């Protein structure tokens, strides 16, 4: 059984590179799909636009979602995911710089499964990604 | 005028009655009178003159001229050459002569002049005696009486006067005046003459009393009138059919219409709402009064003046309602002031709304700013740190020790900047945060914070002395941020101390409970105390004690938001104490 994808929704290429590196460092070998903004993320998930040919029933193992995104922001992506039957139960981890309480509260209200603040210290970040991978990719039983 | 007519009519009746009685006296054979009359004095003519005299007196302008008329008539009719009159002085202590008097042609004015300033104490001299005795005195020849009995005797003798008659004018058993007559010839007491003069004096008395009462009434009325005119409030009397009957000066001023054009017109015509004005005075007629009845006068120039009316009915002697007496109070100034206050309040309100909106906008902007700071400033730092770490890990074999040291410095600088950003956000959040007051146990908070601190460096030996039960009213979140900083500082600045001690307690300063955090750490020089609570001000090197210089600025803001005060005492090397009250 091939490993399911990880969808990384992130507009900052540095953060993309660092996240990929952290995943690699922690031996997480799942394929990582990169969406650079909210629209791309939704297109991927619902098999629309550039991803029209994709089988939308294939839900990523985990969606790593930044909040501050061009076009459609992270919270709106989350809201749309939770409204759609197909993606209603997809594990979503908010991965953001924001430490603002309001973002945290809104994320959980909209149905985020986890909230991780990207630390400046890469070692801490790497540790967070490791734990994330451990939980969502290894321990968590995928939604049937 | 009707009253006066009545008086005159009564008077004439009385006088006619008097004449009739005199005629009777004569007819009944009063010898003395008859003989006197027979002596050619033409007393019948004189008696008939009595009503005429009395009438003349009653028509006199005032008390003084009435006496003057009486003196003149009596002298001319009965043959006295001189007559004067004495009344009580204002202070009632003595008798003084009234200026009016009578001198027949050829009689010496000098006597009048010389005795002008004479006064008689009650009981002294002829006028004084008569005042008390209420009886006439006849002196056949004043030139031979003593000056004790007749103080003016010498002057009278010099003037050539001989016979003298003094008669009281009595009304209601009260002496109103004493008349004194003198003539050049000496004369024995003559009953006929005394009778005539006494009757005339009695008549004069009642006339004078009436005159005097009239005068008093007039004075009282004038006094009342002056009061009415002096009032700054417009006063008006209104007849039962709503006509203006009387007004004062203030009414003329406020309406701009002279009184002769106001009197007789409809009261309600002078108001912006005549119907309301009519209702006002009708209320007075039915209820007896109105209080603070608001009306607006439209004056001759068309200006509108707001007034409050207070009015009552007034009645005649029999209690019959005569009309309404109404007093207005010009409240236009008060109204204007009220309007100004109202407008100012409205402006103020508007300004408050505007300011609040501005503040809200500024707050929103600030929030957006800090949101952006927390996201956008952090992202590049993450790259700097992350790729430095990547270099260190992935290229460790190609980097020499110095290269690795540089990268380590890059990493620690970026992490320090991250800490600065976080602290700044805390500071701004402390300012923005809405205060939620409740009872907060600072002692419990302090113990929780200390437990966290100890976890970070469990190997340290630190003695804690935390007073229990220090409960205050405040925002728990803000107070926690404050204590975290104060206790965190104490923890940090005692790190080089072998036996560190940190206290938290309360003491009284200027009668206020003042909480304190005390340590035995490095302390600071009091010369720099003023910089302590300013953001980004540090008194120690980063290498000695790490920090961003924002902690105490945050503490001060928390204290400020609680309306309290914070200050510190220290000596370099001897620890520091931070006091605060809320």
Overview features:
heterodimer, A: 144 residues, alpha/beta, Rossmann fold, five-stranded parallel beta sheet, B: 582 residues, alpha+beta, Beta-Lactamase, 4 domains, six-stranded antiparallel beta sheet, five-stranded antiparallel beta sheet, 16 helices, elongated
Give the CATH H-level superfamily of chain A: Response regulator
Question: What is the name of the CATH topology of the largest domain in chain B?
Answer: Beta-Lactamase
CATH architecture classification name of the largest domain in chain B:
2-Layer Sandwich
Structural class of chain B: alpha+beta
Distance from N terminus to C terminus of chain B (CA atoms, Å) equals: 85 Å
Order of helices and strands of chain A: EHEHEHEHEH
User: In the CATH classification, which architecture of chain A applies?
Assistant: 3-Layer(aba) Sandwich
**Broad CATH class of chain A:** Alpha Beta
Number of helices of chain B: 16
- What oligomeric state do these chains adopt? heterodimer
Say which CATH homologous superfamily of the largest domain in chain B is assigned: GAF domain
Tally of helical runs of chain A = 5
Q: What order do the strands of the largest sheet of chain A run in, or round the barrel if closed?
A: 2-1-3-4-5
Low-confidence stretches of chain B: 27-43
Compute the CA-based radius of gyration of chain A. Answer: 14 Å
* Total strand segments of chain B: 18
The overall pLDDT average of chain B reads 86
> Strand share of the residues of chain A?
5-15%
Number of strands of chain A: 5
How many structural domains in the coordinates of chain B? 4
């Amino acid at each position: 059984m091939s490993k399911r994808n990880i969808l990384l929704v992130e507009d900052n290429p540095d953060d993309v590179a660092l996240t990929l590196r952290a995943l690699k460092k922690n031996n997480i070998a799942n394929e990582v799909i990169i969406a650079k903004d909210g629209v791309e993320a939704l297109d991927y998930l619902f098999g629309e636009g550039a991803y029209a040919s994709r089988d939308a029933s294939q839900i990523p193992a985990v969606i790593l979602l930044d909040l501050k995104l061009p076009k459609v922001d992270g919270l709106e992506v989350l809201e749309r995911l939770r409204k759609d039957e197909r993606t209603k139960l997809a594990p979503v981890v908010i991965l953001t710089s924001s430490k603002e309480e309001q973002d945290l509260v809104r994320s959980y209200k909209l149905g985020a499964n986890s909230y991780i603040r990207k630390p400046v210290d890469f070692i801490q970040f790497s540790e967070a990604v490791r734990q994330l991978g451990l939980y969502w990719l290894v321990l968590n039983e995928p939604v049937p | 005028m009707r009253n006066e007519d009545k008086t005159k009519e009564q008077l004439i009746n009385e006088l006619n009655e008097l004449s009739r009685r005199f005629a009777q006296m004569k007819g009944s054979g009063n010898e003395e009178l008859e003989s006197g009359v027979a002596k050619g004095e033409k007393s019948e003519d004189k008696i008939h003159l009595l009503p005429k005299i009395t009438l003349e007196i009653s028509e006199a302008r005032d008390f003084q001229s009435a006496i003057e008329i009486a003196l003149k008539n009596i002298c001319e009719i009965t043959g006295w050459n001189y007559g004067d009159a004495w009344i009580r002085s204002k202070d009632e202590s003595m008798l003084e002569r009234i200026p009016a008097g009578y001198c027949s042609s050829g009689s010496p004015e000098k006597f009048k002049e010389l005795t002008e300033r004479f006064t008689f104490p009650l009981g002294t001299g002829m006028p004084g005696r008569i005042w008390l005795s209420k009886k006439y005195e006849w002196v056949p020849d004043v030139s031979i009486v003593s000056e004790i009995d007749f103080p003016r005797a010498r002057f009278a003798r010099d003037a050539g006067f001989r016979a003298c008659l003094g008669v009281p004018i009595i009304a209601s058993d009260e002496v109103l005046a004493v008349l004194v007559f003198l003539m050049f010839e000496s004369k024995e007491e003559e009953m006929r003459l005394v009778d005539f003069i006494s009757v005339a004096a009695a008549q004069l008395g009642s006339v004078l009393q009436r005159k005097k009462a009239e005068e008093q009434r007039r004075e009282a009325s004038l006094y009342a009138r002056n009061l009415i005119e002096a009032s700054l409030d417009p006063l008006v009397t209104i007849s039962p059919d709503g006509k203006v009957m009387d007004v004062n000066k203030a009414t003329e001023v406020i309406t701009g219409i002279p009184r002769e054009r106001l009197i007789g017109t409809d009261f309600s015509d002078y108001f912006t709402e005549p119907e309301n004005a009519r209702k006002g005075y009708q209320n007075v007629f039915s209820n007896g009064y109105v209080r603070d009845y608001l009306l607006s006068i439209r004056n001759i120039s068309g200006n509108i003046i707001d007034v409050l009316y207070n009015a009552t009915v007034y009645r005649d002697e029999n209690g019959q309602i005569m009309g309404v007496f109404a007093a207005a109070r010009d409240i236009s100034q008060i109204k204007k002031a009220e309007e100004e206050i109202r407008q100012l309040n409205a402006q103020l309100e508007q300004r408050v709304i505007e300011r609040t909106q501005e503040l809200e906008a500024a707050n929103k902007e600030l929030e957006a700013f800090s949101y952006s700071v927390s996201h956008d400033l952090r992202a590049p730092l993450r790259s700097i740190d992350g790729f430095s770490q990547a270099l260190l890990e992935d290229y460790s074999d190609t980097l020499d020790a110095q290269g690795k040291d540089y990268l380590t410095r890059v990493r620690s600088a970026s992490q320090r900047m991250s800490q600065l950003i976080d602290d700044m956000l805390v500071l701004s959040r402390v300012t923005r945060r809405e205060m939620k007051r409740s009872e907060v146990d600072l002692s419990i908070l302090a113990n929780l914070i200390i437990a966290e601190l100890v976890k970070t460096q469990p190997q340290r030996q630190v003695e804690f002395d935390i007073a229990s039960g220090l409960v205050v009213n405040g925002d728990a979140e803000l107070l926690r941020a404050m204590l975290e900083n104060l206790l965190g500082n104490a923890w940090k600045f005692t790190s080089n101390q072998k036996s560190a001690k940190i206290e938290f307690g309360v003491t009284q300063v200027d009668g206020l409970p003042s909480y304190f955090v005390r340590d035995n750490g490095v302390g600071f020089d009091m010369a720099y105390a003023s910089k302590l609570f300013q953001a980004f001000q540090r008194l120690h090197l980063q290498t000695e004690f790490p920090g961003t210089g924002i902690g105490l600025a945050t503490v001060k803001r928390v204290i400020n938001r609680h309306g309290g005060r914070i200050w510190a005492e220290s000596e370099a090397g001897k620890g520091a104490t931070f006091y605060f009250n809320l």
